[in-house]
């Protein structure tokens, strides 16, 4: 970054004084701008902390042109002035920003520098959003004023440490949502805390709006892992109200505006899912447009022949596909491709956001839908009735905690320990049939199966004596008989 290069030690009495020295009325050899030559208007403006450019506009006289010569550009003046001391809102040393390269996060970089006088380190997490989303990010970040861009590949950690525990728990929010964004935010925030420690940052920042769930998910993770970090959420502070305001701010600060076509939908993509919100989806009565979907074909256009696959599971977690052992991220990526071409995993729902409002979203989760079906089907062999009922009850709470951003909450960790223990014998294989949007289990087997053919058969067996059922029914139905006898005698 240029730091008012026109003022050097050879032209001013002290190289540390710079433009602030001029504002205080110091004497600089360039133009000899003295206390007496500063206008009353400029001094008053300086006392109110008005932006540098406003001062330059007021001091447009010939004797102050030496000051104007210092200003290489609006961006250089405003940002360098902020980074020399306090910003307009305070002082931070270094901020790690969750960065996507889009308009919002590109604008946040100079906004942080201007308002907090800080160095900005951009951070991007690869959670499977696609190579196209990562191209050219370093150039964009530095062009916006960031000192560096840190990129970390979190795909395997995302699947093994966040997705798989939710899968094992059977966590589904409000009967439909498979928690794609909810699981991704804590893994990203966790990595941001690590990066903040590595680069010596005293703050972290995100571009989440004040209306959504993600602000909570990020910040609860920050609180849990490093409560000493300052958190800056520009959307809750700045005056920018929308895209047009952001574009104007970007132009004013010489920030390259992303030239990619703005989608009419708000989307979030990772290795687990793709979500769609906004535009016509804001009216729950509207059917999604066919061309909106990106991970899956329309079930009507899916192949006319079904496809079968076998998933092997060990202790509640998938390990192989069709006999081939794969890493968690690789297995999920392959299932996304297979499920997508059969139109698997589309969900259209109205959900209750954590902040209180309802929102309508459409989700594509092809691989995840296949895995959930396989895991639940195998549990039908390995868990008894009471285990299934208790697991399902706790799965609701587990999903609620993840949705609400409480990944590092002791309660979720305790429930996770229960889930790990109760699925220790959920090992085996499940065969599934994929056909035009549907996933149908066609076979399942487990060395720990509680299913006994000799007991379940309609033929007579030595373990189950059908005559025993009479006594069981009389005892099981005793409360009903007693109640009926009471009511009969009282009438």
Automatic annotation (TrEMBL):
Domain Arginosuccinate synthase-like N-terminal positions: 94-256
Pathway where it operates: Amino-acid biosynthesis; L-arginine biosynthesis; L-arginine from L-ornithine and carbamoyl phosphate: step 2/3
Protein name: argininosuccinate synthase
Enzyme class: ligase
EC number from the UniProt entry: 6.3.4.5
Record domain Arginosuccinate synthase C-terminal: where: 265-482
Subunit structure: Homotetramer.
Pfam families registered for this protein in UniProt: Arginosuc_syn_C, Arginosuc_synth
Protein's UniProt keywords contain Manganese: no
One GO location term (cellular component): cytoplasm
Species this chain originates from: Kalanchoe fedtschenkoi
GO biological process: argininosuccinate metabolic process; L-arginine biosynthetic process; urea cycle
Domain of life: Eukaryota
InterPro entries found in the cross-reference section: Arginosuc_syn_C, Arginosuc_syn_N, Arginosuc_synth, Arginosuc_synth_CS, Arginosuc_synth_type_1_subfam, AS_cat/multimer_dom_body, Rossmann-like_a/b/a_fold
GO function term, MF aspect, one: argininosuccinate synthase activity
Protein keywords: Amino-acid biosynthesis, Arginine biosynthesis, ATP-binding, Ligase, Nucleotide-binding
Transmembrane regions listed in the UniProt entry: none
Keyword match Calcium: no
Lineage: Eukaryota, Viridiplantae, Streptophyta, Embryophyta, Tracheophyta
């Amino acid at each position: 970054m240029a730091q008012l290069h026109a003022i050097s030690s050879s032209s001013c009495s002290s190289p540390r004084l710079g433009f602030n020295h001029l504002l205080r009325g110091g004497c600089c050899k360039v133009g000899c701008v003295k206390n007496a030559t500063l206008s009353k208007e400029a001094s008053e403006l300086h006392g109110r902390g008005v932006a540098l450019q406003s001062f330059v506009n007021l001091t447009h006289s010939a004797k102050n042109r030496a000051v104007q010569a210092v200003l290489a550009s609006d961006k250089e003046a405003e940002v360098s002035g902020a980074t020399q001391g306090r910003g307009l809102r305070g002082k931070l040393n270094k901020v790690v920003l969750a960065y996507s390269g889009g308009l919002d996060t590109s604008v946040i970089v100079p906004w942080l520098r201007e308002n907090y006088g800080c160095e900005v380190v951009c951070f991007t997490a690869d959670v499977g959003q696609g190579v196209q989303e990562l191209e050219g990010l370093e150039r964009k970040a530095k062009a916006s004023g960031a000192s560096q861009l840190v990129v970390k590949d979190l795909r395997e950690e995302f699947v093994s440490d966040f997705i798989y525990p939710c899968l094992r728990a059977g966590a589904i929010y409000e009967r439909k949502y498979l928690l794609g964004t909810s699981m991704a935010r804590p893994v990203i925030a966790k990595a941001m805390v690590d990066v903040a420690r590595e680069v010596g940052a005293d703050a972290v920042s995100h571009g989440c709006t004040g209306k959504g769930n993600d602000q909570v998910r990020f910040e609860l993770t920050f609180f849990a892992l490093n409560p000493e970090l300052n958190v800056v959420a520009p959307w809750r502070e700045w005056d920018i109200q929308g895209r047009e305001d952001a574009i104007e701010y970007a132009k004013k600060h010489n920030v390259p505006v992303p030239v990619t076509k703005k989608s009419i939908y708000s989307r979030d993509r990772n290795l687990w899912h793709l979500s769609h919100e906004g535009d016509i989806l804001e009216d729950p009565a509207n059917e999604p447009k066919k061309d909106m979907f990106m991970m899956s074909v329309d079930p009507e256009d899916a192949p006319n022949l079904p496809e079968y696959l076998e998933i092997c599971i060990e202790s509640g977690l998938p390990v192989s596909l069709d006999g081939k052992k794969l890493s968690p991220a690789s297995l999920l990526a392959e299932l996304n491709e297979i499920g997508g071409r059969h139109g698997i995993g589309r969900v259209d729902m109205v959900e209750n956001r954590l902040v209180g409002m309802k929102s309508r979203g459409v989700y594509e989760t092809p691989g995840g839908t296949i895995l959930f079906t396989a895991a639940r089907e195998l549990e039908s062999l390995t868990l008894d009735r009471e285990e299934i009922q208790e697991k399902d009850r706790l799965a609701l709470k587990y999903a609620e905690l993840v949705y609400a951003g409480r990944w590092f909450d002791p309660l979720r960790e305790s429930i996770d320990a229960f889930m790990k223990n109760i699925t220790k014998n959920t090992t085996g294989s499940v065969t599934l049939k994929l056909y035009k949007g549907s996933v149908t289990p066609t076979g399942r087997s487990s060395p720990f199966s509680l299913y006994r053919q000799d007991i379940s058969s309609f033929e007579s067996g030595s373990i189950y004596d059908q005559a025993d059922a009479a006594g069981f029914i009389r005892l099981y139905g005793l409360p009903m008989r007693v109640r009926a006898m009471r009511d009969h005698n009282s009438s």
